[in-house]
Design goal:
The protein is mainly beta. It folds into two domains: 65 residues, Nucleic acid-binding proteins (OB fold (Dihydrolipoamide Acetyltransferase, E2P), Beta Barrel), CATH 2.40.50; 95 residues, OB fold (Dihydrolipoamide Acetyltransferase, E2P) (Beta Barrel), CATH 2.40.50.140. Helices cover 11% and strands 39% of the residues. The strands form four sheets. It has a five-stranded mixed barrel with strand order 7-10-11-13-12. Strand 12 and strand 13 form a beta hairpin.
């Protein structure tokens, strides 16, 4: 998860599987909490959702207290949008995940390619960045069903998409970003 404080700073936070049951019922997106007794550890070398060298790790001793009365403005979401030039730098380097905002220019059908012996759901979406560059977003698994091709043919545009935590790869010399 990504936590945001009153100064609009963000940090990646993790809860290991063996203690997740303890904390899952205590946390809800969009609510405010006071956390204590957690560990601050080095950020992963790979797949960082925010640009930060550290992250928070919950422990069995971590305390969570919901704050009901809040007199500060903390955003519900935070993005670190990258421009097209930054995308070039991130090809096949999965240290920092990428957030983009773009115009949807095409939605492909659901496909089921065979990968490592199993058929998986996949859908491609073509987008145009603010700088005017075309990028293909590939949606995998159940998220491929969350975008309906008919929505884009039956409704007038433009259609804007915010895609977050993308990995960047190339295929046949073109950028693709993977969810």
């Amino acid at each position: 998860m990504i936590l945001i404080d009153e100064q609009n700073n963000s940090i990646h936070a993790i809860i290991k599987n063996n203690i997740a049951k303890k904390f899952k019922p205590l946390l809800q997106e969009g609510k405010f909490y006071e956390l204590s007794h957690f560990q601050v550890v080095d950020g992963n070398a790979l797949y960082r959702p925010v640009d930060n060298d550290i992250k928070i790790m919950f422990t069995l001793k971590t305390s969570i207290k919901e704050i009901k009365e809040v007199d500060v403005d903390i955003p519900r979401h935070k993005f670190e949008f990258v421009d097209y030039n930054k995308i070039h730098e991130r090809v096949n380097k999965h240290v920092q995940l990428s957030d983009i905002i773009a115009n949807v220019i095409g939605v492909g059908p659901i496909e089921q390619p065979c990968i490592k012996g199993s058929n998986v759901l996949m859908r491609n979406i073509n987008v145009m960045t603010i700088e005017g560059h075309e990028i293909k977003l590939t949606l995998w698994g159940s998220i491929a069903n969350e975008v309906e091709e008919s929505f884009f043919t039956e409704n007038p545009g433009p259609f804007i998409i915010i895609a977050t935590c993308l990995t960047v790869k190339t295929f046949k010399g073109k950028f693709i970003s993977l969810f």
